[in-house]
Amino acid sequence: VIVSLRERRVLVMRDADTLRVAKAAVASGITINYAGKSWTFRTPRGRHAVLRKIDKPVWTPPDWLYAETAMDYGLELARLRPDRPVRVNARELLVVRGGKVGLLDESTRSFSPLPTDEHIVFNDTLYIPPYEAQNRKVEGELGRYALDLGDGYLIHGTSDPKSIGRAVTHGCIRLGDYDIAWMYQMVPKGTAVYIY
């Protein structure tokens, strides 16, 4: 597999034969700075390999997603810890129970889980859920299939087909549905991936 970042395309080769050419979305190259931290979104160059193939990948967003969202909406950013409830109003605490983030009503001791597909925002603060919490698992964002290149980098599908052919990702290589489905079927684990 050969990935051209400049041309934003992926080629699948067998010896001298080109088996598939696909448009791809690649990293934006943007740097964000927030709350004393900095992230630059690049696709790593060099030789890699397909470490594993994933059907229905679930995305666990890194901290940069929460920083980016907090910046976009002018919010403070705080990390939610299972051992430290956060008071959000006179009656309720923001807590983690059974792998879910929710509100604990102190008067009734009842726990109400929050939706897992929404950010957790109270009092102008966006809370980063614990890494293992269900609130930090996003289904469908990476498309139906993914090829894992290691270190958090994937060749994967997308929920945003209009992004294909653009420099918009945070480091992964994004393909359209038909192209990633073909690669999932045809590219074996261990295949070399050259990114330049």
Q: Mind sketching the topology for me?
A:
Elements: E1 2-4, E2 9-14, E3 17-27, E4 31-34, E5 37-40, E6 46-49, E7 52-55, E8 58-59, H1 63-73, E9 76-79, E10 86-87, E11 92-97, E12 100-105, E13 111-113, E14 120-122, E15 125-128, E16 138-139, E17 145-150, E18 153-156, E19 167-169, E20 173-175, H2 177-186, E21 192-195
Parallel strand pairs: 1-21, 3-19, 9-15, 18-20
Antiparallel strand pairs: 1-2, 2-3, 3-20, 4-5, 6-21, 7-17, 8-16, 10-11, 11-12, 12-13, 14-15, 17-18
Summarize the structure.
The chain has 196 residues and is mostly beta strands. The chain is 11% helix and 45% strand.
Query: What's the N-to-C terminus distance?
Result: 11 Å
Q: Return residue spans where pLDDT drops below 50 for at least 5 consecutive residues.
A: none
Order of helices and strands: EEEEEEEEHEEEEEEEEEEEEHE
Largest sheet: 10 strands, mixed
The fraction of residues in strands falls at 35-45%
What is the overall pLDDT average?
A: 96
Walk me through what this model shows.
- With 196 residues, the protein is mostly beta strands.
- 11% of the residues lie in helices and 45% in strands.
- The chain is built from two helices and 21 strands.
- The chain has helices at residues 63-73, 177-186; strands at residues 2-4, 9-14, 17-27, 31-34, 37-40, 46-49, 52-55, 58-59, 76-79, 86-87, 92-97, 100-105, 111-113, 120-122, 125-128, 138-139, 145-150, 153-156, 167-169, 173-175, 192-195.
- The N and C termini lie close together (11 Å).
- The model has no long low-confidence stretch (mean pLDDT 96).
Can you tag this structure with a few keywords?
single chain, four-stranded antiparallel sheet, 11% helix, elongated
